[in-house]
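Hi team,

Filling in the usual template for the complex we talked about on Friday. All components are listed, including any nucleic acid strands or ligand strings, so the model treats them as one assembly.

SUBMITTER: L.P.
PURPOSE: interface mapping
COMPONENTS: three
RESIDUES: 1169
SEQUENCES:
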Amino acid sequence: MPKVIVNDIEVDADPKDNCILAARKAGVEIPHYCWHEALSVVASCRMCLVEVGEKKPDGTVVMGPKLVPGCQTPIKDGTVIKTDTQKVKTSQALTLELLLLNHPLDCSICDQAGECYLQDYTYKFGKAQSRLDEPKIQREDKYHIGEQIALFTDRCVMCTRCVRFTREVSGTAELQVVARGSHEEIDVFPETPCNNKLAGNVVDLCPVGALCSKDFLYKKRVWWLKSADSVCTGCSTGCSIHIDQNEDKVYRLRPRTNPLAQGHFMCDEGRFGFKYISDERRLTKPRVSESIALSKKSNGSKAGGLGDLNFSDPWSDVLEVTRTKIKEAIKTDARGFVGVLSPFMTIEEAYLLASYLKQLDSRVRLVLGPVPMVGTDDMYPKGPKGEAPEAGKVKFTIRAEKCPNRLGVEAVLRHFEGQVISVAQVAAKADATSWYFVGGYQHGWVDESIDRGVGKPSLLIVQDLFPSPLSDRADIVLPSGSFAERDGTYVNHSGLAQTANAAVRSPADTRSDGRILMELTERKGLYNAMAIRKEIGGVIRSLAALGVGDLGENGVKLNASNREPVFS
Amino acid sequence: MTTKSKREKTVKWGEEPKIGWMEAMYLPAVMSGVATAVRHALSGKPMTRQYPEVEPEIPANYRGVHRLNRDEEGRVKCVACYMCQTACPANCIEIIAAPAPKDDPHWENRDKYPATFTIDELRCIYCGMCEEACPVDAIELTSIYDLTGMTREEMIFDKEKLLSVFDKTIQSGQDPVRTNRGALGPASEEAETAKQGPPPPGRGRKG
Amino acid sequence: MIEYMKELWPILWPTLGAIGVILAFVPILGLYMTFIERKIAAYIQDRVGPNRVGPFGLFQAIADGIKIFLKEQVIPDHVYTFLYFIAPTFSLMTAMFALVVMPFGPVPVEYESGFRYVVAPGIDIGIIMMFAISSLSAYGIILGGWASNNKYSLYGAIRSCAQFISYEIPLGLSIIGVIAATGSLNIEKIVAAQGGSLWDWNLFWQPLALLVFFTSALAETNRLPFDLPECEQELVGGFHTEYGGIKFVLFFLAEYTHIVTVSFLTVLLFFGGWHFPGLTGPVDASLGGMLLRTFVLVAKVCGVVLFIMILRWALPRFRFDQLMGLAWKGLIPLGLVNLFLVAVVLTLGLPKHLLAGTAVLLFVAAMISTYQLQRTLNQSNPRVMNGGIRGVSV
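RESULT (copied from the run log):
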């Protein structure tokens, strides 16, 4: 490990680090615009200029005569980096002054304000005033850059991160630098907008407010947003994300850098695909069919009298009825009771339901809900003709399996059922008398075969987000929560278990699955994902890695220590 | 006793002021009190103002009802930056921003404007933080102090009502003076350029 | 029956008339006293006072009356309903009952037929009766405080109770001198005894008695500076915290009736009643003389009422220990000494105006001795004196 001295602090750096990364390890920030970990180095913004020298074995320090760009300068043992000398400070201030020459002072309407590197660096390293007397150059906004992105040309600092992204990561190369000198602009070729499936990432990459997301444009100032670390449920890649919300409304998803999961980026499908969670078609109220409600009333139980008055919380009665009904059904025909676990459930939720049903009667069958598959895996960067990259050069994959947690739910099923049966198999046999369906899918999932296979059972419980043919005729409907409302763990395609945190409260009278199941399965206390995770770690051997409880920001790989074959 | 001695240490004991024998009789004090009362009663110079008939002179930096200023072209000056909403300690401002209608030549050189701008005048504490925060001097507190209404709903001022307050105060010459309009912020520079000549083509944002 | 009524009528109608006059005037008086009080308060505080309703705001009192009568009757959940309703009624009843022996115009000592300016003339224990009844007014306040079932109300009531008991004593002591000099408890006779020259007024030979009487009487009316039962800063509203609307008005009227009673008593006992220089001697029956004397009496009473109102805005409220100290350490000894001196003068047959000087001297001497005593005590143990307050943390 090479030793690097950053502002008199000695740190161990990685041999592959550049000066910026080495300084970061010493807790020193070297400002930079054009450099990005996932992109190639161009050293064009000149913001990261630092003094670099060498400490000789005899202890003397020799500094280089000129400032060098930190992003481009590799380190070796004994490299000395100085970022706090007057020379560096002057250079940073001058660079910022130049970058701001033609930058409009429209922070008040710029969406980036609040998370803008120009603002931050000017505040930290720059000058308070501009010395420019001439009028600033003004350029036209380019709303035609892409379906999801708009370019505010005069805010651009020409770092070319976006250009390099389309060339190196998405491989589609739509964005270009046109003209030269002070006329430089980012643009696309005529009639070829930047609409690839990773295009949204250029908005995150842009260190200033030049590239803005049209979806989020002027919706909310970023300082109002509170973010929660979560996991994208769009496909089995399981991108780490931030969910940015304000007052229980999700405004945007942002990728969270996670080297174990997806890297720095996420696809537009996931990024803009969260809208369904605030869809007005969502089930909003727990519902019990009239026949059950009537029989309950005739029983003269307290729900008949007090229950009618209990308008504030419709859940307490419904869950009680559900529990009795499940027990009755299992008593009559345990083998005929089928619990369907959806691959959108977190491991904790699947475990809660599976362990409860199996503990009521071990003959109850647990099956895996339908796993949505769309097309084939979409890999980036694309070649010049749109072809997939060679193996080993893949930088980003959008998976065909459009659910986040098939592997996790399968692990739970293997433990409790011994094998993974799909719902289609049971539906085909049509020997089930009662069903407990858990949905949570983004899109309609009840196909005709399931619909027909389920038929008209004696008990049909549906816990789902959206109305479906099943929920229409269900005896009990429990409106559940979307991914933004869930706490729990997902296992992605490669066996990486990541935790997702709830960002918003459940709308109207819905509840997240964890909360429903916690109460339904007669457990004491509130739903606490970490406590259940620890329990699972002790119970299910293939998921023993979850026993630590806190999986950290990046998650834990399950393959490392498992003995059961989880992934066949 | 320990507690007492502790208290003796920590508590400083003061004395009531000693009174002389004239005061101990109470009567002179009573008489001087009565004399003061009678003197005031007979002075015949009330300090009060007969309010609805005699209106007070409100200083120009009084913080009364808000107004939303218009720019030279009569559009709302506000650019919907949410600064006032952020600064507001009473959470009484609610803005919903929208991209300015690009097709409309009237809005050609504007990017963002407030689609709605609502101030709950009942919730407002008239602290003036909003006008202090405003980067374009679009929101100001006027010297209108007699704000009344019959319902809570009519005290929630929307954009149109706030603009109408601007029109009213402009006409009646009740301009607030606090923000030194035209002397700070990008808006003032914009105003100066507008005086010098037409802006160069393109968008109207200037630094 | 009719014969009997005819026989009774000449005796009955003057009494009924007098009752009518009192019943009619007390509420109106109460209303307008609030108006006058507000005006005086305003003038003293350099304000204008009510001036919106009618000329000079004269109808303000009526507007207030209408408003307060139309107010919602709020009965709090936690009160003892029966006592809660009884208390204000009782308060006003006792206050008005005390007016029974109160001449509100010239009344001859000897009974004559025809209208008299008093409900019950020629009662030989008039003044005793008056004190007995007005002492009962404490009952209404205590009932109110108790029935409210509210700690502040109860505090107010208990304070009021202690205050009443304490000030009854100097009140009684102070008039014994007057009664002894007159030799009668009959109010008309006491007034008649002052019927000579101006110097015959009790004021001029018993100033000490007047002082003790007036101070104690003020305390009995719960007026500032003695309004501890209802002091807003400490007890919200005191005993009437839970009362509103017409029930509150009854308490209010009772208080103002007390002021009127006290003012009348002061004038009758010390300021020569309806007598005035040039208007002396026994009451003649002529209408002009009657009206003139009535006017003199009412004018004097108005003066006293005005003085009470001015006092309210001139003096701060007593602290409770000061209040008690004033009664027990100040007024009661003074009253006793005054009684002793009156007894000496009367027994030895000395000129009674000798008392005026001695009384003032005595008063001064008492104050000096108190002051000296206080000073010596202060020197020996600074923390025990000053009205029992041990110290103020700085």
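MY TAKE: DSSP finds seven helices and six strands in chain B. Residues 27-43 of chain B form the longest helix (17 residues).

Thanks, L.
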